Amino acid sequence: MSLAIMHSRAQIGVEAPAVSVEIHLTNGLPSLTIVGLPETAVRESKDRVRSAILNSALEFPRKRITLNLAPADLPKEGGRFDLAIALGLLAASAQLPGGCLDDFECLGELALSGHVRPVRGVLPAALAARDAGRALVVALANAEEACLASGLKVYAIDHLLELVAHFNQQNTLKPYQSQGLLAQPPSYPDLLEVQGQDAAKRALVVAAAGMHNLLLSGPPGTGKTLLASRLPGLLPPLTEHEALEVAAVQSMINLEPLRNLPQRPFRQPHHSASSPALVGGGSRPQPGEISLAHQGILFLDELPEFDRKVLEVLREPLESGYIVIARAHSKVRFPARFQLVAAMNPCPCGYFADPNGRCRCTQEQVQRYRNKLSGPLLDRIDLHISVARETTSLRKPKTPGLSSAQAVSQVCAARQRQLQRQGCSNAQLDLNALRQHCTLTEEDRTWLEQASERLNLSLRATHRVLKVARTLADLAASSMISREHLAEALQYRFHEQQ
Fold first, then answer.
1. pTM value?
2. 87: which of 73, 353, 393, 403 is 20 to 30 A away, CA to CA?
3. How many angstroms separate the first and last alpha carbons of the chain?
4. Fold for domain 3-167?
């Protein structure tokens, strides 16, 4: 057989498009030509594959070899095609039986000795191979990650010869059995460790229950960062579908292969981060902080210290839940359904309106400081909380406040009501779903419209007030939004006007 076809997968963002590795042998001077838009690492695979085959005591075909990676207009990058190329060469030169490769897909980089090395982005390829109804052959180090795609038959190998012996029926490989390594539940700091700040704790529970964006504003040392670090411990666990989405993003950047389903991400970039650091980029587009925070939290401490142009890139993904990075030859789409939590001081020195008169900032300095945050960005933040300085006390409070365990039970119950009613969190409601699930009495509707006019709220901000009120009703186990819920939701917007 002078023609062989092997199946593999490319990596374009979090997608894994199919690639057919076609190999044709003809008479002529020995040569190997790779076509199909290969980049440097793919073109170099011919040398790695040749050495791997020869060092495995196999015969490298001494013929004119044409190797096509189809489709031809899809860029091919990395060493992930080495294993598929080697198997295709062995099948085309009759060292493997014909037709044995049809039901398999291969991912792996070959060492010169023939050993198989792990590659990145195996989970998206595993999910795609499962949907295509084929088995997946990967390096042993990638096996647990591939097994995260339930229902997929995975073959894990350490050396090329193991697969050759399998196809020649000399030593049959058994499908890899996952070791069942479960992720240890993370140990989050407890909400009880935060002294006072009952209003801010209440806002944390509301934000967790409805997946709402949150802004904490207050003087230095009042516990803004402390509060934000407690929010991951209040969120409900990831569903299997959400966990696979998070793992697919992480598998693109992790040098170490994934072995467990991940927890909800908590990303905290420094305020010197650039726009590409947040949204992603590069000649080979990689996910940025907002995609690495997918299904989790993006915490921006010292929010006004970020460059304004950097903050403006958050506006679109906050609405759409994804980011598209365009390059001359392609567009890559990354998921970015994250919860934004930010903290800031009220002025450059941090002590604006302090009763002790410690603030020395002029009105112009305060205005310039606040103008670093645009109105459209603040409009997309549902909860604006002022974190005031608490009375200094080193004693343990006599009456314990809300613990993380108590808050989690409230949050999970509220999220469950949302999923049963509308299939998503309240923050993700579109306009039609908002009209359907956030109904008001005629008196309450008129009251909300008048309040929005007095506070100069935009229509988007008013819709977000409704979403927060719906979350407050869910926390109270109420099927209807009452005036009390609307008043509390507006209170969180009132801080924005200060």
1. 0.88
2. 73
3. 78
4. Ribosomal Protein S5; domain 2 (3.30.230)
